[in-house]
């Protein structure tokens, strides 16, 4: 019996600032393992994907653009095994993630969905659907799947900084922002591959790189500097990942990573979730687990 064909789709550079090589490396590492197992593997960049691209049996992708995701949706409907499923990619976009986390009672900081055309903080809607004033300090993030430039995530110490961030977003044509309360505690990065038992985590300060220039005072790395005191306490992260695992049928993700803050109360609260991260700090082990996942779900 002929082995199945696998198409690996690299993430567009605009969705992978400072991370292009690392993002490509994990896909190539998985591909190497699948090739050794007899799979026919090919590569393409997200920007090159068109309606005329031949559909493979299996697609491993980092796609983010609406056009490319629409093609993958067609492939899913035609029977292609797409990893991660398109629905899962949409579910980790910031607004969707905030609402879904609230619905599933996954621990998160208090979060507001803000119309950037409206600076009236008393009128913004929390993820619980209530009208409530924003508290400070907080983080102001563009709605969507990820930060594409340093000022897509801004720290606001007071209402003036908040309003400046919202005004800048609106001027850039960004209609919505996700505003998240600032939490004191240790920021932990974690990586999960469903159905394989793979879980890796580490303090964000030990990641060793930043996708944005660290000279920017409002870059995304600032969000990881909630506390100089870091911890690798496994229990809070394990509990958070268990709650995500229990919600797997709604999140629709198989390969993902995230960021969480472990507060003084010992609870890990989710602040971000990413479909198919680079796994740079655990690439070889992650590649083994993803290849295992592909073989399990043929």
CATH topology of one domain: Rossmann fold
- Strand composition percent: 15-25%
Principal-axis shape equals globular
Q: How much helix is in the residues?
A: 25-40%
CATH class of one domain: Alpha Beta
Mean pLDDT: 88
Strand runs, count: 13
**Using only CA atoms, what is the Rg?**
19 Å
Notable traits:
Rossmann fold; alpha+beta; single chain
Model description:
Among the domains are: 5-83, Rossmann fold, CATH 3.40.50; 108-181. Mean pLDDT is 88; it is low at 211-231. Helix content is 30%, strand content 24%. The chain has helices spanning 20-36, 66-77, 86-91, 94-104, 159-171, 234-246, 248-251, 283-296, and strands spanning 5-10, 40-45, 58-61, 81-83, 111-115, 125-126, 138-142, 153-156, 176-181, 186-193, 198-203, 255-262, 268-275. It is of the alpha+beta class and 298 residues long. It contains 8 helices and 13 strands. Helix 1 (20-36) crosses helix 8 (283-296). The protein has a 5-stranded antiparallel sheet with strand order 6-5-9-7-8, sandwiched between helices. A 4-stranded parallel sheet has the order 2-1-3-4, sandwiched between helices. Strands 11-10-12-13 form a 4-stranded antiparallel sheet. The chain starts with a strand and ends with a helix.
